[in-house]
Amino acid sequence: MLPLQAKKLASQYQKEADKYNSGMETCEEVREKAEEALSAQMKLTAMWEIRARQNGWREKVAKSNAQTQGNLQFV
Questions:
Q1: d(Cα 30, Cα 35) in Å, to the nearest integer?
Q2: Is the model's pLDDT at 45 over the cut of 50?
Q3: How many domains does the chain have?
Q4: Rounded to whole angstroms, how far apart are CA atoms 4 and 27?
Q5: Which of 9, 22, 36, 51 has its CA 20 to 30 A from that of 72?
């Protein structure tokens, strides 16, 4: 009886280990995709910022305008 219980227990542990490893692989794949998406987004943001600067955009002016607009009250 004892060897049979040991086999069952080992089988349960193996199933849990397989689930864990599968979850880790999935997590790693998602992390890699997220890193790729972030990298692409950062490149796109940099491109738009360069274009904006070429057209006269300045960060301090943009922040000042945003604060001014935030303080406006609509009646």
A1: 9
A2: yes
A3: 1
A4: 35
A5: 51
